[in-house]
């Protein structure tokens, strides 16, 4: 895993904006639960992203952020139901992990996001 010094200072809003740009560029559909605490399902994942390659549920956190008990419950329940749920953090962005996962959801070839040497 790449340890980029920018990961420690990146806010959740900055992470979400980087993800939004990739989702848009890949032509994926995405839903962002702005404030799940005010909905019927507190703790619902921040993002639901859908493309030709599938659907993912993602909770976004800062590098040091922690999941609430409700967020853990949603994640555990979604995984038991066979869904693709996990937490994304800035280190996942800088390592290329988020780009690879979104490319899979879009059913695109990974080389779209690889940086030339």
Domain unit count:
1
Indicate the overall shape: globular
Low-confidence stretches: none
CATH class: Alpha Beta
- At the fold tier of CATH, the topology name is Trna Endonuclease, Chain: A, domain 1
User: Helix- and strand-based class?
Assistant: alpha+beta
Described by strand count, sense and barrel closure, the largest sheet is:
4 strands, mixed
| Beta-strand content estimate | 15-25%
Tally of helical segments:
4
Strands of the largest sheet, in order across it? 1-2-3-4
Q: Give me the oligomer status.
A: single chain
Radius of gyration from the CA trace? 14 Å
Mean pLDDT value = 89
What percent of the residues sit in helical stretches (DSSP H or I)?
25-40%
Short description:
The chain has 117 residues and is of the alpha+beta class. It has helices spanning 12-26, 69-80, 90-95, 97-106, and strands at 29-32, 47-51, 54-60, 85-88.
Topology readout:
Elements (H helix, E strand, L loop, with lengths): L11 H15 L2 E4 L14 E5 L2 E7 L8 H12 L4 E4 L1 H6 L1 H10 L11
Parallel strand pairs: 3-4
Antiparallel strand pairs: 1-2, 2-3
Descriptive account of the structure:
There is one protein chain. This protein is an alpha+beta fold. It has a single domain, classed as Trna Endonuclease, Chain: A, domain 1 (3-Layer(aba) Sandwich), CATH 3.40.1350. Helix content is 37%, strand content 17%. The protein contains 4 helices and 4 strands; from the N terminus they run H-E-E-E-H-E-H-H. The protein has helices spanning 12-26, 69-80, 90-95, 97-106; strands spanning 29-32, 47-51, 54-60, 85-88. It has a 4-stranded mixed β-sheet with strand order 1-2-3-4. Strand 3 (54-60), helix 2 (69-80) and strand 4 (85-88) form a beta-alpha-beta unit. Helix 1 runs parallel beside helix 4. The longest helix has 15 residues, at 12-26. The radius of gyration is 14 Å and the shape is globular. The mean pLDDT is 89.
């Amino acid at each position: 895993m790449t340890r980029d010094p920018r990961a420690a200072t990146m806010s959740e809003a900055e992470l979400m904006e980087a993800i939004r740009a990739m989702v848009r560029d890949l032509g994926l559909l995405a839903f962002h639960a702005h404030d799940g605490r005010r909905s019927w399902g507190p703790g619902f994942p921040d993002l639901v992203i859908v493309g030709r390659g599938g659907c993912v549920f993602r909770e976004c956190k800062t590098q040091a952020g922690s999941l609430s008990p409700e967020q853990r419950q949603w994640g555990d329940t979604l995984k038991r139901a066979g869904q693709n749920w996990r937490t994304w953090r800035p280190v996942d962005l800088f390592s290329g992990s988020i780009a690879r996962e979104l490319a899979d959801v879009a059913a695109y070839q990974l080389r779209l996001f690889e940086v030339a040497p």
